[in-house]
Design a protein that fits this description.
The chain is mostly helical. It has helices spanning 4-30, 44-55, 58-61, 108-111, 115-123, 171-182, and strands spanning 141-144, 166-169. Helix 2 crosses helix 6 (171-182) and helix 5 (115-123) packs across helix 6. Heme C is lined by residues 53, 56-58, 60-62, 101-103, 105, 108, 111-112, 118, 125, 129, 132-135, 137, 176, 180.
């Protein structure tokens, strides 16, 4: 090697190009992004639930990124409009996901607002969706003989309730459900179009 300076200059140029493409330009594109309509900061319970979602690997089977009609029929599936940067304003890190073994959950709070349904489904997905391949999360619940004051009893379909017992949601399960219920990115993205002009 007899031209170290050229090598160094080439290396630095490549580094500068990569830094601008991967850091500077995305930063400039995204720095003025505002939350989309209706997107609010998560509450303390929802943030705890978000951690439970991450810890239990929900993100490996569920995306949070409805796609454009040219990629997938997500709107027809009822998963919501195409997501935009402002939808993730309060998500650190975002949970876009890469796999869709289960449905996209970006708007599950709208599609399925019932806490009872979510709790029962987490305890035993097959109680609600026969043949579901989603794992059950029984460790987020207590199975007891009778409810104590303040317990959130899960109303499971008869056939799935442990015989003679009751199923009570843990605080962790309640946090997770509160996070799922908060998933709503259906607000308008662009300013509403001006009202159509009356025909002359
Ligand atoms: C191995 C993959 C897998 C994992 C891990 C997984 N799910 Fe699922 N999930 C599915 C599948 C498949 C379905 C569709 C069948 C059903 O509803 O049970 C589903 C359905 C759902 C639904 C209903 C969606 C709808 O549109 O009705 C919710 C809510 C949900 N999952 C939440 C979770 C949460 C929360 C976690 C983590 C605690 C999780 N899932 C982990 C595969 C998975």
């Amino acid at each position: 090697m007899n031209n170290e300076k050229a090598l160094l200059a080439g290396g630095m140029t490549m580094l500068a190009l990569a830094t601008s493409a991967l850091v500077v330009i995305p930063y400039l594109q995204l720095r003025d992004v505002k939350p989309t309509e209706g997107v609010k900061p998560y509450s303390a319970a929802q943030l705890r639930g978000r951690e439970v979602y991450i810890a239990n690997g929900c993100v490996y089977c569920h995306s949070q990124q409805p796609r454009d009609a040219s990629f997938a029929p997500d709107a027809k599936r009822g998963w919501g409009r195409v997501s935009v940067a402002g939808d993730y304003y309060y998500d650190h890190p975002h949970l876009l996901g890469t796999m869709r073994t289960g449905p996209d959950l970006m708007n599950i709070g709208v599609r399925q607002p019932s806490a009872d349904w979510h709790l029962g489904h987490l305890f035993q997905p097959r109680a609600y969706v026969p043949g579901s391949i989603m794992p059950s999360y029984p460790f987020l619940f207590d199975v007891k003989d009778k409810a104590d004051p303040g317990d959130k009893v899960v109303n499971l379909p008869e056939a799935f309730n442990p015989p003679g017992k009751i199923v009570v949601a843990s605080a962790t399960a309640l946090d997770l459900v509160s996070y799922l219920q908060s998933l709503n990115r259906t607000g308008a993205v662009l300013p509403a179009p001006p009202a159509a002009k009356a025909a002359p």
